[in-house]
Amino acid sequence: MYGENYSSLRRILVYVFSMALLSLGVYFMTSANLGVAPIISLPFVISKVMGLSLGLTAFCANIAFILIQVLILKKRFPKQEFLQIAASFLFSFFVDLMAFLLAFVFVPVSLPERIISFIFGLFLIATGVSLMSLSRLFMLPGDAISRVIAKERGRDFGKTKVFIDASVVVLSTSLSFFFLKRLEGVHIGTLITVLLIGNIVSFFHSKFGDKVEAFIGFEPVLKEEVA
Question: Strands, DSSP E only, in 23-168?
Answer without folding.
Answer: none
